[in-house]
Design a protein that fits this description.
heterodimer, B: Rossmann fold, Alpha-Beta Plaits, 2 domains, four-stranded antiparallel beta sheet, 11 helices, globular
Chain lengths: 267, 290
């Protein structure tokens, strides 16, 4: 319990900053919604001027951006990128930071099992992600209530859209943790995180542009692609199951590897 | 009772040797010295015992329990001071020690205060404001605050000034009187000789010798430098003297044997200056490799 509360204390500030930033992001997008919705034709003309490749990469094709949920999917993509970066940073740092800061010698010579330290750290990271997740829910419903401007929307669709976010976050946490115990040393969690988060996004964008469906199985940006959600009325359950499996396998593997890990020396 | 029992312990980091076939036992109440040059495998051995790393082969047991299987139980009674101390920089000393104490049963506030007073450590400072020596003190307090039955010290004195070293040694001796066993790793022979009952010498991953400190001392040479107006010493066929040479009127030789007899010999001459030195660790190694 002492490890968990210390780790949560450490993560709290970062989780709140992420939450607030995402709130601002959603707010910024939704503030502009009433304008877009009233001048639908002008908006569509603007969109036609953009190259199709770019629209595909941004996941803006095939969806009516004048509807509340259609417009929201656009801002959802940016929220997802933020959440991917946050999840990855937590994943890459939570186990490796003790080794990088040479404090692993302190923590792991205490009378605790390694597995206990792992679980405490995992839960602390999940707590941080849940805080930000809750902020996304709050921001979404607050902004669509205020800025829907009389346009109809189904709250249930938003609930369905947001309920998979936690899986999206855990995917990056799990992969981050796994990679951090596979490599000898994580020198900078941030650069690894940027690589993982944007790498996954670029794969997803590439898959959209070239229309290659098989690549979709490796990136959560495809598992939970907001515009596919709107077009098909929900996410592909197969993709969701794949995501769940990846999370379970990566975290379990990280658990076993961490238990057998040789903690490097300070010098 | 055997507090530490290491059997054929071997650790390779990939192809690099950590230690090879190390066996030793430490009895309860001993202050056991573990001495060797840098990179000999001292830290590796300690880290294996703390299960920070896992052995390639062989086993280590502490308090009769396997270090890997019962690691978390064993560590209840171990106090460890790493050679390089790094702590959570943003914490204050007080909070770090409180966090450290929270892993052990019982209330350790009083003991923290006592130890901080002895080591003259300011509990209200932030860790990242501390000098290396002061961080070392934090390490000492966090290693001893739960009154461990086994104290593992990995090059504990680096960074401490002589006065603090002295206080630290007193503290260790006191803990030892209380019943604690001490495993003391160092590359400085002098401090090991001051404190330990027995020593193990490790070199290039192998134990070279395990010996009583007294025997080791008798067994080793002293380096003697004498300035005298006569070359009497040079001429005597005194037993125990070897490698004698005269450089700029200074007689230098190695001596092995009774120190009193040597002093008597020296006093018979007109001596301006005398210097008797412990052989360096390397010289002792050379001795064991002859």
């Amino acid at each position: 319990m002492n490890i968990y509360s210390r780790e949560v204390k450490k993560k709290l500030k970062s989780a709140l900053i992420w939450s607030f930033s995402i709130f601002l992001l959603i707010l910024l997008f939704m503030v502009m919604y009433p304008g877009f919705a009233t001048d639908e034709t002008i908006f569509e003309m603007v969109m036609e001027n953009y190259p199709e490749v770019m629209l595909k990469a941004m996941g803006m094709t095939g969806v009516n951006l004048a509807t509340v949920i259609g417009y929201f999917t656009f801002c959802m993509l940016f929220t997802q990128i933020c959440l991917a970066v946050q999840g990855s940073i937590y994943g890459f740092s939570i186990l490796s930071e003790e080794e990088r800061d040479m404090t692993a010698d302190f923590l792991l010579t205490k009378p605790i099992k390694r597995s206990k330290a792992f679980i405490a750290k995992l839960f602390a990271a999940v707590t941080g992600l849940v805080i930000t997740n809750a902020a996304v829910w709050g921001s979404t419903f607050l902004t669509i209530t205020v800025f829907s401007d009389g346009h109809e929307y189904e709250p249930v669709m938003f609930v369905k859209l947001l309920s998979t976010l936690i899986l999206f976050q855990l995917f990056f946490l799990g992969i981050g943790m796994l990679i951090s115990v596979l490599v000898k040393k994580v020198r900078s969690a941030l650069s690894y995180s940027m690589g993982l988060a944007f790498g996954m996004y670029i794969i997803s964008a590439t898959a959209s542009i070239i229309g290659e469906d098989r690549i979709s199985y490796i990136t959560p940006f495809k598992y939970f692609e907001p515009n596919a959600f709107v077009l098909e009325g929900g996410y592909d359950p197969v993709m969701t199951i794949i995501c769940g499996t990846v999370i379970v396998v990566s975290i379990t593997t990280a658990f076993f590897l961490y238990n057998r890990r040789n903690i490097p020396t300070a010098s | 009772m055997k507090v530490i029992e290491i059997k054929n312990l071997t650790k390779f980091y990939g192809k690099n040797r950590g230690i090879e076939d190390v066996s030793l036992t430490v009895e309860e109440g001993e202050i056991f010295g573990f001495i060797g040059p840098n990179g000999a495998g001292k830290s590796t051995t300690i880290r294996l015992m703390l299960s920070l790393i896992y052995p390639t082969s062989g086993s280590a047991a502490i308090f009769g329990k396997d270090c890997i299987k019962f690691g978390h139980e064993i560590r209840n009674d171990i106090g460890y001071l790493p050679s390089e101390v790094f702590y959570y920089d943003k914490m204050r000393v007080k909070d770090l020690l409180k966090y450290s104490a929270s892993f052990y049963k019982g209330d350790h506030k009083k003991r923290i205060k006592e130890l901080a007073d002895i080591m003259e450590l300011d509990l209200n400072r932030k860790i990242d404001e501390l000098s290396y020596g002061n961080k070392k003190k934090v390490g000492i307090v966090q290693g001893l605050l739960h009154q461990p039955k086994l104290i593992m010290l990995d090059e504990p004195t680096s960074g401490l000034d002589p006065l603090m070293q002295h206080k630290f040694f007193d503290l260790i001796l006191e803990e030892n009187k209380r019943g604690a066993t001490v495993f003391f790793s160092s590359h400085i022979l002098g401090e090991v000789q001051k404190l330990c009952n027995r020593v193990a010498i490790i070199r290039e991953g192998h134990i070279v010798k395990i010996e009583d400190i007294k025997t080791l001392r008798q067994d080793t040479y002293k380096k003697v430098y004498v300035r005298t107006d006569k070359n009497a010493i040079e001429q005597t066929k005194f037993p125990g003297i070897s490698n004698l040479e005269v450089i700029d009127g200074e007689v230098r030789f190695l001596y092995k044997g009774d120190i009193t007899e040597l002093l008597q010999l020296v006093m018979e001459n007109n001596v301006y200056d005398i210097n008797i030195e412990e052989p360096s660790l390397e010289e002792i190694f050379m001795h064991y490799y002859k």
